[in-house]
Amino acid sequence: MKFVPVILSGGSGTRLWPLSRTHYPKQFCEIFEESLFLKTLNRLKPLGSPWVVTNSALRVVTESSMREAHVPHHQAIFEPKANNTAPAIALLCKVFEDRRQTDTIVGIFPSDHLIQNEEAFKKAIELATECAIEGQVVTLGIKPTHPATGYGYIEVSKKHIAEKGKLKAHATKGFREKPDEKTAQEFLDAGNFYWNGGMFVFHVAKMISHFQTLMPDLWKVISALKSDLSNLAEVYARCPSQSIDYGIMEKLKEQVCIPCDLGWSDVGSWTEIAKLRESTDKIEVGGQGNFSLSSSGRLVAFVDTKDLVVVDTSDAILVAKKSATQKVKQVVDVLNEKKDKRAHEHTFEFRPWGSFEILRDTRDFKSKVIYVNPGHQLSYQSHAKRAEHWVIVKGHPEVVLNDVIHRLKPGESIYIPQGAKHRIRNTHDSEVVEFVEVQVGSYFGEDDIVRYSDDYKRV
User: Fold this and answer.
1) pLDDT tens column, 189-236
2) Structure pTM?
3) Which of 32, 417, 376, 98 minimizes the C-alpha distance to 231?
4) Do 96 and 214 belong together in one domain?
5) Residue 412 forms part of a structural domain
6) What is the per-residue burial (b if ≥16 Cβ within 10 Å, else e) of 236-273?
7) Which helix (H) or strand (E) is 355 found in, with range?
8) For residue 271, is it within any domain?
9) Domain-terminating residue out of 231, 265, 299
């Protein structure tokens, strides 16, 4: 029976601001050399070619990571809006039903968690698959290391019903909400409570029957979905927002949990990250226990301070006590109240053809560094309110200016007059084109674009 790993990729990016933001949430941040999303893709690929269910707002960066991991784009399902985990999993089951693949074992995994013991993870999935073949819905239970109040817990029976090596599958006695500190300590002392890491394994046909029984209203709405997903936005607008834990898992009379020690972390705060990685360039004078992460490469110096976290990005700096980093979400709340775009956007942005980063944005000019991926080109466009000057840094692009082709190399430049039709294309099959753009005019917004042709259907 085929096993298909599925990544649920959502999140608003509030707990790891300013590095993580709504339009670039933590799963895509390169906190550990590569992004958590890419780590998850690569971890799951040996189990089967992964599918992804995510928000349509994250399409470009999702497809870019899938391309890097050599995972086919057609295995991504893009939700019209974030709608919690129950609609996402119901949507997945409906897609598999339409593809006549209900006799499939599916594993559901978060996109933004860290698993350091991948061999233990693989063995846990093997046992979970065996249980799912027998009709069980399986949850991986994370062995707790301390009385955490930020996680839900799973209580299991001490008698196991299946085993594989040292791993045992236990009957689940119930899901417990996030506890207070006293209750969390009681859970830890009892020895049969495990953190709920949001990882589930099930047979697709079995899960569909659970939706039909336990969430019939949701399944009725999802059942109206056309096989080509052409009415997805209409259907999703009618789906109630609910978690799979509350809608299905807490109501199932029979299910199993496999307790395991995976070296797991939900990477949920800067305090947690400070435990998992080294600081970037820092100096401590008369202080200790401080953590720094600078995406700009700046040196951070601590003088007579203790247990501080400093996170430095191009447009924001976070300074917090390690014991208070859970309050970072409140900073994002304040930014939202002020309608400050720094709650959601970085100074860089990903596009279907590559990416750009804003270097300076002033009243008189705006400058960017722009990257065009191999084989891609920008739309053929013009600007009504600005002229542009391009200086090639890397690569050998073709620039089309008012229908005339100019071939450039590093060190050369070209001037784009206001109102002129233009585009740049990278005809190379492996090297990225990099160039610096300086805009001069009366307005520099991204909406000052008239497109005449475009590979990505944005005309």
Assistant:
1) 999 999 999 999 999 999 999 999 999 999 999 999 999 999 999 999
2) 0.91
3) 98
4) yes
5) yes
6) beebeebbbbebbbbeeeebbbbbbebebbbbbbbbbb
7) strand 354-361
8) no
9) 265
